[in-house]
Each structure stands twice: as structure tokens, then as C-alpha cells.
Amino acid sequence: MRVPNSVVLPVGTHVDCCREEEVEEKRHNIMAKITAMLAERKSNLAHFINNLEGSEEPEFYMDQWERLKEMESCTLTILNLVAVNCTDHHDIKKLEAAILEHVKNEELFPEVVRVLPPVYRQVEAAIVDISQSEEMADYGMMDLHYLLSKLSQYEHLANLGRELLQDVLRYLHRIGLVVWYEEINHLESTVFLQPTFLITMFKVSEGNQDCLQSPSSA
């Protein structure tokens, strides 16, 4: 909801636990709930924006107003839900085919026809190589300046500059190969070469938070 021009493909699993008519009923209910959720979000944002604009001193809330307007402008495209039986190889292939069909849709993904300079592929291949090295085995992230120095050790990337690297990282972030939060001051110099590391870290953090919130059994 916070990413401009997002495209979401809902996937329903455990089809093998439902009758055929139940699958269609659940598909309809899920899509209806998503539609209602988006409508409620749009209404809430409009309400908050109107409140700020109608306040006695709206200039004091300009930062909040700008953030809300930015969220309001984010479009979200919800595709039709794909129902699969995860234990059925044919259903997995069906899901894969559906994803590929949507990704090739130029209306949904205008950049699908973008021709990338060869250096983009070269940097991508080098980053994959680095991310799979023993050096990255434990933590999956790297300082941006250090990453540039590592990439510069590749003969065909010896002249790679920071600005070009940042352009490539923006592309790799969009396609999900790496995670780079350049808009967050504390994280702009850190590149997560293994996005799965973030998932593990969040799970550990949530687990610790649950332990802190649980009442003591002592």
C-alpha cells in the first residue's frame, strides 16, 4: 500500500482441503474483503487529510499532510486470486505460468520492455556471486562503499562508479534481488544482498517481542 504502482497477486492455498464450490466461494469472499479494505483505506486517508486541511493552523501539520497525500497517490492493482494445491506439481506450474503472464503485461509493468545496459547484468551477476560467497554466509548485508570496492575487483567492473552502482541497485531492489532502503538515513549505506536474511531477522525480532509481552510464568 505504500509502494507506488504496486501490483499484488493474491494466492489461495490448501485447495485440496476444500470442495470445488467452496474454493469459488472463498475466492469471492477474499476478493470482496480486499476491495472493502482498499475502499476503507481510501476513505480514512481522505478523512485524515480533510481534518488537517480544516485545522486552525494547517501549516503546523504540513509534513503529515504531505505523507498522507503521498500515500493517497499510491495506486494498488489487485489481480484475480489464484487458488492452488501446494502438494500438486501441476498447480505450482499453473501459479508460475500466471505470474509470468502478468509480469509480461506491459500495462501492469511498463519497464518489462526496458532494454538494460550490459553493465546492469554484469553488476547483477557479480552481486549474486558475492552474495553466495562464504563472506556473506552469516549476515547477508554489506556496506555500500565496501560493496563498490568488491565489485571494482572484477576486471570488467574496475571503472564502476558509485552513482552508476546506485542506479543498478535501484533496479535490483525493484525486481527483488537485493533490498536497499536509500530513503532511510540510517540504512542508506547498507545493502541487503540476501533479502531472506531480513525475513529471518524480523522473525527473531517478533519472537523476542512476543516473549517480552507474554506474562511471566514464574
TrEMBL record:
InterPro entries: P-loop_NTPase. The gene is Mfhas1_1. This is MFHA1 protein. Gene3D superfamilies: P-loop containing nucleotide triphosphate hydrolases.
